[in-house]
Amino acid sequence: MKKNTLLQDFMLQFRVIHALIIREIHTRYGREDLGFLWVLGEPLIFCAGVTILWTAIRPSHEHGLPMTAMVVTGYIPLTMWRHCMARSVKAFEANGSLLFHRQVTPLDIIIARSFLEIIGTMMAGVLVFAAAVSTGYMELPEEPSLLWLGLLFHMLFSFNTALIFAALTEMSELLEKFLGVFGYLSLPFTGAFIMVDWFPPQYRWAIMWSPSQESIEMIRAGQFGLNSHAHYDIFYTCWINVILLIIGLYLTLRVRRYIFLN
Is Transport a UniProt keyword of this protein (predicted)? Predict the structure, then answer.
């Protein structure tokens, strides 16, 4: 029997993940009309709503930085992370019947769900950013390459979190119930609404353990340049995300025994 090459195996898994994404869109938003646009519409409503609200009720600048840009550069990554995490809960159980197909693996399911959330949030972010720039509430990024590097790290962190929580919530119902509490308690450590420089120097080390804080600091350094006084460590962000990815893959490879298949 002739074996597939590595490239053929890769293309096969690519087609599987693409099919899972289309199935997820149809399952979640229906097959009729333009329902699939809710992939973009849902995060757009969240991000635009919070940006408008904060711009209206908060001072125009905080710690010398414009409020609208602070919200856009913080809330969009936060939405990406929270949506990836929320959609990972019981993802394997919801798609358990697909695992009867030999080509579909738990990893494919999480890749498809996370990709959908990341792309939807990114498209919403681009629209909110373009609207804020065109209306004069934001400037173009000072260092676009650093902004994109921070976004890439945040996408990886969001995917890693989805991998870990998808497996853990399948293994323990207690963790599934705790996830909502974890989401709220971790808000101060995400870096969405505050920067490391605003903390007293003796406490900064604690918040800089957060991979989310690190990547959002990079995004803001890319947006505001030196004016933001951002604190980040690219080396730390690399290895902490690699460790989280290894943990997530390890758990995902061992989760099948906990999945209830109908």
Answer: yes
Report pLDDT digits (tens) over 101-111. Answer: 888 899 999 99
What's the pTM value of the predicted model, to 2 decimals? 0.91
Angle of helix 144-171 relative to helix 173-185, nearest 10 degrees, comes to 150
Strand partners, 66: 61
Q: What angle do CA 116, 106, 185 make, to 5 degrees?
A: 65
Residues 6 or more apart in contact with residue 48 via CB below 8 angstroms = 124, 127, 128, 131
Provide the Cα torsion 97, 102, 106, 109; round to 10°: -70
Strand partners, 5: none
Helix-strand-coil split of the chain, %, nearest 5: 75, 0, 20
Cα 152 from chain centroid (whole Å): 10
